[in-house]
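User: I'm curious what two different proteins look like when written out as structure tokens. Can you demonstrate?

Assistant: Sure. I'll show them one after the other, since each token string lines up with its own sequence. Here's the first protein:
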Amino acid sequence: MHPVSAAIDDPAPSSDSREDVPGRGPRRPSPGKRVEIVLAMVLVVVAVLGVVVVRNRLEVPQGPAAAASPTDSALRATGLPPSVPPAIANLMGLSPVPVTSAPSFTLVDQHGRTVSLDALKGNPVVLEFMDPNCVDICPIVSQEFVDAYRDLGSAGPGVVFLGVNVNAYHTDVASMKAYSDSHNLSSVTSWHFLTGSVSALRSVWNDFGVAVSAPSPTADVVHTSVVYFIDASGRERYVAFPTVDTAADGSSYLPAGPTASWGKGIALVAASLR
């Protein structure tokens, strides 16, 4: 998900522009500022609705762990792997879901190889939806995947890490390869950044309840950020919802501690599904 761009500048003040003056009412936002405010509201609504759609699709329980502070180690949602500490589960927004077969799909990865979700049975799968042009939350999730792979040690190659492209304007294999290389995902031997035709991608988004908004090639891509954990039998077992902090300049980041904890949590959940 990209942050709101500051590309829309306020026009020069018109003759009827005014500062707040007693008796004259507040200064009205300029047209450019109103557009920027509307865009910001749209981005927030899409992001929030995306999480709601995923939770409703999977009937994710709204237990105490989902609302707990990341530092609160006393609360745990039922049905989570015992190996995952409550504080990490809370940080991840980790939730169990009804055990059902994950929707099947077939796409191509960053090497142009055909990858079918059904063909990956026998291995746990960690699935996320990513934009190859993203500069905020997707790179952070990518680092968490790299950390998780490292934390898994010798078991790492037995866990498949998948990313599904959400950018309908950049569906070429080369873009998936460039992103994978630039964010060190190529060091994960079981990593696949999947893409395909726009219709094929939209089908996968819809099947997994992922909302995507990108009104033009130059607009920011806004999408649901969700991690699916699929067991070795191809069944959905858990979901988690990545988050980031926002700096004063609008850039996104996550401190090293939470990033490492996310990586550890992903590894622990994946290991429990082998």
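Here's a second, unrelated protein for contrast:
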Amino acid sequence: MTDSTKNESKAIGGRARAASLTEEQKSEIARKAASARWNSHLPKATHEGVMKIGNVEIACAVLEDGQRLITQSGFMRALGRARQAKGRDYYEGDVNLPAFLTAKNLKPYISKELEVTSSQLEFKPTKGAQAYGYAADLLPQVLDVFLDADEAGVLTAMQKHIAARAKILIRGLARVGIAALVDEATGYQEVRDRQALQQILDKYLTAEKAKWAKTFPDDFYRKLFTVRGLPYDPTTTKRPGFIGNDTNAIVYERLAPGVLKKLHDLNPKTDKGHRKDKHHQYFTQDYGLPELKSHVEKVMFLMDAAGPGNFKQFKQMLERAAPKQGDTIPLDLNDPN
């Protein structure tokens, strides 16, 4: 059978299957096709998870642009699954507000900013076609609405449990930022930290080495020898092997997270165990180099303060003044960024 014959056979089979479908089946296939085309334009979630505030579990997500969301179901769970039927207790003209904010008795406590920012967001979850949610920082604002209304004594009996839940959640959010909670629950903090670390390294270092220029003054090495209790010979530039390790430990490891590791990548050792360039040649002229020189001056001051032969005391003072930074950024749950 030729290829053209095979294709014709498939086409005949496809028309036969299409003819056997009911109108409902055809409509469903068309609906799914249209939905797939539409959903391809939705912002996508890259991370999903469940955060816990007290004993409340709230589903959340982070979109590909870094926006943090609480899912629609997560928001309802946060409010105690508050689903109220619309009726005369609801006011008109606020179609953009989510259902849980449209009660008449809440209107005086909803700011203009909240009216603008409380729209529902549609996105594509990691699994499934589409989902709905709200910006994560909307939650504390909504909780404040119910707490303010409760304090004013205007909540109905059906709304009282939401105010009770709001008090629990607000206490939890007072200790930990909503963005940090979402990041921890979804695993996005690893991406966030990598991005933040890269931004730091981009400020300090460049892949294009600069021409060699004297960066470490002779006094740096003289003071280093002195604080170690060793004689210093100013007539030679040859240094003992430990000087390189000292320079890494007291300078490059203390500038910013990941700096020394990145320098090893940019300026690796040769087969003979030497580096072709000086680490400081890879520092940016506008930021990294001034920071490096400032740190070297601080180190020299502490060497003088420790005095001759007091290397241990110098290291103790240095650890307090400029501790080692490591290769990663520690997660701070109190940091909302």
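A detail about the second structure: The first helix runs from residue 3 to 20.
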